Each structure stands twice: as structure tokens, then as C-alpha cells.
Amino acid sequence: MTTPVRDLPLLLLGEGSDPASERGVDCPGELPPASDPALVERARAAKAALGDSVFVLGHHYQRDEVIQFADVTGDSFKLAQKAAARPEAPYIVFCGVHFMAESADILTAPHQKVILPDLGAGCSMADMATFDQVEECWDVLEDAGVADDVVPVTYMNSSADIKGFVGRHGGVVCTSSNAKRALDWAYAKGKKVLFLPDQHLGRNTAVLEMGFSLDDCVVYSPHRRGGGLTHQQLRDARMILWRGHCSVHGRFSKESVDDVRARVPGVNVLVHPECRHEVVTAADQIGSTEYIIKTIEAAEPGTSWAVGTELNLVRRLANAHPDKNVMFLDKTVCYCSTMNRIDLPHLVWTLEALVRGEVENVITVDEDTARNARAALDQMLALP
Questions:
Q1: Are 82 and 57 in contact (CB under 8 A)?
Q2: How is the chain split into domains, by residue range?
Q3: Per-residue pLDDT, 77
Q4: What share of the chain is helix, strand, coil (3-state, %, to 5)?
Q5: Cα Rg, the chain, nearest whole Å
Q6: What are phi and psi of 339, to 5 degrees?
């Protein structure tokens, strides 16, 4: 007997929910949908009532409906720094994803509470490297006899646990804009680098900016015995890349670049270094989120730009610069699905709860992890 289709779980089609995988989806209390104009007014009223007691941070990849209420916009590290520079604000509402809120908690004062409006706003890249997996990787490096030569470097897009691991082992955190400086520092200290968790940023920086060859890089897979590498491969490698990637930037392909060049004469292709190596080598310019924004702002009127990064930002740049032809690199729409979990209903719920004296969704990093992670972050700040 065939089971009726309507009786099957249809989570992918939006029918039903899985509480174990959709934490933070439901907001207690009555909230109108985001399209209700009253929701905007409720956010304004709650923010006005809170005054200087709340500081709202908005990542560049957030929806416009959320960004309009941000006191500061920026990338993850810039926002964490801005939060730390506002000790007079006891409540930091971080409109971003989980690892960003963790970094803000590490860098802010003990009396400040960092709030993530939706606890389900995670990061697929950060989730690709867990503490236990990285500990096991270090055991593999020790077995291969190379651990003493390895300096761990982790991208900002990693959990507090991973930052803590890196700090405990004398490593450093990096961003997409200072990855080369972090690697220069690491190679002055050791012979090899374990780069976490984004293989593409690590490879692109090593090969395109430091003169490494692709053969100098190996990829460690946490899902294969020994990382899928022999001890000799680990001994020969200069850069040990973690098998992780950004689900948004990883979708761009060389075909995307070829297609837009065929469709748009004279187009400039501008991509983030989290893109695959074959994409960045086919692009005209490569740079961090802040670099992408500044490049479009400084571009000549009438020029065309295909941008390989998150769609919310690309659309915002296109709307802000109507004198330039700014487009998404790929034909297929691609938002950061987890970043987009921070929507107007969740923000309103968070702010109105604070008005009532209720503090929801506080992100707290334990003391030991925070201390070690802070060491890795401070080392990044001390880079020449």
C-alpha cells in the first residue's frame, strides 16, 4: 500500500518543523508577520524606549529590514570590536550568527550581555570543525611527528571552542582581510600551519599571496581516518587545510564567471576569498566584505560588476549605487540561510522583551574557553 504523500514529513517543503534542528524558530508572544508595517513601528518604539542601554549590531549579510535598526554595520570582527568599545551599553543585540555573538561575548566586559535574536542562526562553515574533531586532528599530527612544527590559525568564522583550542596551542585568529599577515606571523614561528575551518581562504591566501604551490597544501578531512592523509603527506605539507567551506561562497563556479563575462561585456568580476580557487583565479579582483564594499563605492559610474558574495549585500550595493551595474555573480539566488534567520519578528521580540526587563537568548562563553580564545584574538590584534 502506498503511503499518501500528505502523511510524509515535508520539512523541506515548509510543512511542519523539527524542534531539534530549528531552535529559535518560534517566538513566544504575539507577533505580526514581517510584512506588517506595525512591526517596524514596534521595533522603533522598543529601541527608543531602551535608549543607550541597548546597542544593535548588524552584519553586512543581514536583511534590510533588520539592518535599518542597527547602530553599526560591519563584518564579524569589526562588530565585536565595536561592542567592546561600548561598555556603557549593558545589552548588545547581535544581528548575525552564533560564532559572531560568541566573539562579542569574549571581547566585551563582564557586565554586558550579548543577545542573539534567534539561537538557530548558526554558520555551516563554523559547524564543520568541532572541538573533538580538531583535538583528534592534533593527535594525528602528533602521531605523524609534526605537531611541534605546526602553528594553528583559525578564521574568525569559527566557534569559541576552536578559537580557544588555537589560543591554547599558541596560534592566532585571522579575518579575510588580514589572513596573509596572520600566516606570515605563523610561519615565522613554525614550519607548518593548520588552517581552520575554511580550506578556500587558506589555500587562496597561501597560493595567491604567499607564493606557495597547490602541492604545498593538503586537505585534512575530519570524516576520514587520519584525515585521509598519510604521515608522509603531513610531513611534506606546508599548509594543512581543514575540509570546510562557506555554503554561500562555495557555490560559485568557474562556469558562473564564464557565463557572466559572456552575457555582460566589460564586466568586472569581484569575489570573496572564501570562493573556490578556480573562481578567484578567474576573477578580476578578490577581497573581504569590506574590500568589496569599498571597491563598489569607488568604482566609476557606468561600470559593471558581478559580485561573488552573499545576496543581501549585493542587492544593497546595487540599490545604493544605481549609477553602476551591480549584479550577483551566479544566476541562482543565494542568501545565507542561517544569517537570514535573524528577521524582524525575532528582533522585535528581543527588543520588547528587554523593555519588559526580560533578557532572552544570552550567549555566554565559559571562562576557560574565553581566556584561551581571547589570547588568539589578542594575538591577531598584535599582528604587525
A1: yes
A2: 37-122+338-365, 126-245, 249-328
A3: 81
A4: 45, 15, 40
A5: 22
A6: -60, -35
126-245: CATH topology is Rossmann fold (3.40.50)
CATH number of the structural domain 249-328: 3.40.50.10800
Report the side by side order of strands in the sheet with 285-286: 285-286, 268-271, 304-308, 325-328
Point out which residues pair with 174 in neighbouring strands. Answer: 155
Separation of alpha carbons 298 and 7, rounded Å:
55
**Which residues lie below 8 Å from residue 369, measured CB to CB, with a gap of 6+?**
160, 161, 163, 164
Distance CA 351, CA 168 (A): 36
Amino acid at 134: V
**Beta strands 150-155; 172-174: pairing state:** parallel
Superfamily of domain 37-122+338-365: NadA-like (3.40.50.10800)
For residue 136 the three cell numbers come to 583528534
Residue ranges in the chain whose pLDDT is less than 70 = 1-35, 333-334
Question: How many residues does this entry show for the chain?
Answer: 384
Cell of 100: 559572531
Determine if residue 17 is left, alpha or beta; phi over 0 gives left, psi from -120 to 50 gives alpha, anything else beta: beta
